[in-house]
Specification:
Creatine Amidinohydrolase, Chain A, domain 1, Creatine Amidinohydrolase, elongated, 17 strands, six-stranded mixed β-sheet
Length: 393
Amino acid sequence: MNQSKKLKRIRELQKKLDETKMDAGLLILSRDVFYYTGTAQPTVFLVTPDDYRLIVRRAFDFAIKETFLDTEKIVNGGSFKQAREILMDLGVKNGTLGLEMDIIPAALYLKIKKIFNKYDLTDISNIIFQQRMQKDDHEIETIKAACRIMDAGHKTVMETLVPGMTELDLAAEIEYAHRRAGHEGVLSMRHFDFYISRGPLCSGKNLFKVSGFANTITGVGLSPAVPAGPSYTKINRGDLIITDIPTCFKGYHCDQTRTYFLGKPPVEVVALFQNLKIISDHAMGFLKEGVTCSRLFETTYNKARDLGVEDYFLGLPPRKGNFVGHGIGLDANEPPILSKNFDFQLRRNFVLTIELHLTHPEYGAVKLEDVVRVKKNGCELLSVTPRKLFAIS
């Protein structure tokens, strides 16, 4: 991507600041700063409707090589007090200052409020979300690369899964395959106090144990300290196994789930997965520019009802899920959330997951999650791993 296209993101942010009568924005979250400047080093990105400065707090030698900004827009070393002085030099001596209020800790907010005491602090996060949701061609190609890395983990499951292997053993094999294929080893989530292992993986009876970390299949983890993800439970012949370990390439994620059966799956499990795939195919067939999140949820649920599996759709009471997918990009889980109460309209080049599962109280759980790109008259499947129930003899 050339410099002009990269700078377009900043110009769009400046336009939104002007439209919303916001005098400046002060960005500190590494994901957001990286999105606008190309570096994730410890920095403060100060932007007004007419100008901007990148204030590098540490590792200036790294930042100057990573960013595409002109050197006159970069300040070596600094603090929030210096950011205030720069803002005043840019002609903004008071007014409204936007902060990423969804993630700033209270102590840091109070510090900023004290330093910028002549400014009214407001939330800029929704403006950033709106912009980040719509991906450009470079972002989409990077997500596709993350999807190819994801497939390396799937192939490892097919090659290594044997009876007696623990969930942790299998997760380690998957994670190793991902790393060797180029996974950066992180799972970025824009949520306070969210922590999990590298991603959910569970089998057998653990499929029914849903942690409070998410309204989906979570696994039980190794201890109460991190009660989600793979455990020491041994995988036995006749078990269903679900893997949901995201990958990250150049900052962008793939979030994909596949279901495996160790042995020959019974007809009931095969039928359960066939229904799941029909529902997923229906959701993808309905998805296009202009569809709202709530309408997509509704049509997906209605398909499950038509097939007679609505009681198992998105889990069992009282922990039934309330969404059928989510946005993905610099965070593994980001807006929009495809939930029943969110009337937000989807736009072209949004990248989403379609994340569905059926949990039968007797036969177990099956899950299918794919990454898709919203297009004008449909969607493009970005996941490369086959969308089927995998039987491992």
